[in-house]
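Subject: Sanity check before I submit

Could someone independently write out the structure tokens for this chain? I want to compare against mine line by line before I put it in a report. The sequence has 253 residues.
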Amino acid sequence: KKGERIIIENNDNQRRFESILPEITFFDNSQNNITHQMNIKASPFIDSNDSGINYRILFTPKSIGNLTLNLKLMNLDIQNSPFTLNIFPKVLFDKSNCSTNVSLSENDLIATKMNGNGSWDGVVLGLFPNPESFRVKILSSGNTNKNSHIYIGLAPKQNLNLNYQNNNRCGWYLYCHNGSPQNSCNSTSNGSYGSKIAEGQIVEVKYNKENRTIDFIVDGVDKNISISNVNNEQYDLFPAIEMRYVGASVQFV
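---
Independent answer below. Compare away.
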């Protein structure tokens, strides 16, 4: 971002300086096919033509997919620029922690309940533990009444049954059918969305591991839906989805 500091250093850490980054502009080239550009203002004593210098730049892309990055240092093109990168999302579903009734697609971004008997036997976890936040879009409720019998939240791998109901015994969730938080571990639930969370809506889960709290935000609107006193001292927590009806489908976004 404009005005942030950037550190550039060589590989033996002997030549180091900080420079103010004047501006970074990002575009979503995965949809618009626009090249990402980054212009860096560097201190004049750095020789960009010195073959012994390796520059390291840390940045956070704003979109996933294939990204083309053009780099300029002191108005000079950096060697081998532009660079093509494959940006992965911070959350993916975990094939090794997925119910036999659930199928993953779109590079493990979408989970769909394909089989089952109408019970809570469509469970899948996210791949990475203790995320600060993640967002889930409800693609389909899986039943003709569109009642959103889907739980979205966090759970440990330990004691989780991938083919059986967990929302009343393992984890902390938002029940999309009525918009209320639910936990099974003597934590404190607060607030409610006030109605069901329907197909097309997005649930954001925010996890503060240090404060032991989980907050749920729907379509960017914070209605103070939360769970406190989360018992997380013993195990890591993973994004957790539980679906009741065949055809139910959710997506990390």
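---
OP: Matches mine. For the report I'm noting this point. The first helix runs from residue 29 to 32.
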